[in-house]
Amino acid sequence: MATSQGTWAYRDRFGDAFARTYFRRFGPGVASSVGVGTYLGEPTDAIDERYRECITEALSSGVNVVDTAINYRCQRSERVVGDALRRADVDREEVVVATKGGFVPFDGSRPDDPAEYVRERFLDTGILDPIDLARGSHAIAPGFLDAMLDRSLSNLGVDAVDCYYVHNPETQLLARGRDAVYDALEAAFERLERRRAAGDIDGYGVATWEAFRVPRDHDAYLSLPEVVARAESAAETVGVDDVGLTAIQLPFNVAMADAFTVSAHRHPTEDRDVSALEYAQATGIDVVASATLAQGDLASSIPEAVDAELTGDTAAQRAINFARSAPGVTTALVGTSSPRHVPENVAAGTFEPLGARAFDSVFE
Ligand SMILES: NC(=O)c1ccc[n+]([C@@H]2O[C@H](COP(=O)([O-])OP(=O)(O)OC[C@H]3O[C@@H](n4cnc5c(N)ncnc54)[C@H](OP(=O)(O)O)[C@@H]3O)[C@@H](O)[C@H]2O)c1
After folding, report:
1. Which residue among 176, 246, 260, 320 is least packed, with the fewest CB closer than 10 Å?
2. What pTM does this model have?
3. Ligand 1 pocket test: which of 39, 156, 256 has the largest number of ligand atoms within 8 Å of its C-beta?
């Protein structure tokens, strides 16, 4: 697991190489504000090799946050993260490793008949109850998450992960009502609190695509205050003093800034609705930004008016620095499977992010 001593020692290795706020408080220690993601790409040996090289290089050059999920590239992404952790010149205690469970994972390649695969491997074996499935491919039932976490630890070759996300819980809204989804989340959190008590995870989170950045009346909306309340109930049921929900993950970039602009969550102490970022900041929850480059689009062009305000030599660096500048964001994840992109993306951290006023002015 990442430790205070390990992550601060990692930071100290780089002296003044990065801008002042490049490393930020996260969990027990510090995390780089540029992280590597592992979502995109075909499930092939060739892409595995490229990711292995990229993650190893990133870990060696100032990135100590790695994000993956059991379903990414048919479990291959988790396996290459494990390879890179062993290969890079870093100790496990220096690196924040996050993964996610929710989507039923394929194993190595896409099966010809996904429905038969799910039936044989998950339903017939009792890992999943058909009633818990949404869209034939997603579940957050405690027993399923338990089994997925075990498999993730094995894929990654680690004793524990630093943050375990419930992956896109809004998918469950396709199969059941909102209250039932909150109940299912609370049951999932209870199980994750038990796994935290057992030392298998340091904390847990909720990774979303739409849930926290859409307006209240949107079909995919989930209320952050309600999710936090369910995490508090789960901690109480399990009998732990501190709540294990430490982070949320959501897309945030120049083209998708709704987590900053859409006020859909009741402020914890004031009588007003606030954005997901402001809510998280007010409650001490870390925000990890995904899709920082809008899946690559922003590396070639950023809307001109915004671009002029941003720091960085290249469009990719300026897009990364936009996400790193948002109040409340701890780390901006960049999916990187091309080795030539690694030094460019890491070097985004040598520029100062925008101050709060300059960031606000982008939206005026
Ligand atoms: N719901 C969720 O939980 C969720 C959803 C989406 C993403 N995520 C997480 O967030 C991470 C980041 O999001 P993402 O991977 O979807 O999208 P992204 O980071 O916005 O973009 C990744 C794409 O940008 C390209 N790229 C990277 N650096 C570049 C550079 N310097 N110049 C030009 N192109 C560059 C990559 O190409 P190469 O691969 O060729 O380097 C890749 O095609 C994911 O990997 C995943 O870990 C989570």
Report:
1. 176
2. 0.98
3. 39
Instruction: Report pLDDT digits (tens) over 63-122.
Output: 999 999 999 999 999 999 999 999 999 999 999 999 999 999 999 999 999 999 999 999
Dist. CA 194–CA 239, nearest whole Å:
10
Q: With a 6 A CB cut-off, is 336 part of the ligand 1 pocket?
A: yes
Q: For position 190, what pLDDT does the model report?
A: 98
As a whole number of angstroms, the distance between CA 353 and CA 362 comes to 13
pLDDT in tens, 309-346: 999 999 999 999 999 999 999 999 999 999 999 999 99
- For residue 53, pLDDT over 90 is answered with yes
Cβ–ligand 1 contact at 225 (below 6 Å): no
Distance in angstroms between the alpha carbons of the first and the last residue of the chain: 42
The structure tokens 């504000």 sit at 33
Amino acid letter at 332?
A: A
What is the mean predicted confidence (pLDDT) over 121-145?
Answer: 98
Give the three-state DSSP class for 66: strand
Is the CB of 296 within 6 Å of ligand 1? yes
4-361 is classed in which CATH architecture? Answer: Alpha-Beta Barrel (3.20)
Q: How far is the CA of 234 from the centre of ligand 1 (A)?
A: 33
For residues 244 and 226, give the distance between their C-alpha atoms in angstroms, rounded to a whole number.
15
The bridge status of strand 23-26 relative to strand 29-32 is antiparallel
Answer whether 330 contacts ligand 1 (Cβ < 6 A): no
**Which of 50, 152, 148 minimizes the C-alpha distance to 97?**
152
Q: What is the 3-state secondary structure (H, E, C) of 207-246?
A: ECCCCCCCCCCCCCCCCHHHHHHHHHHHHHHHCCCCCCEE
Nearest CA to 192 among 243, 154, 118?
243
With CA atoms as reference, report the closest residue to 330 among 273, 292, 363, 361. Answer: 292
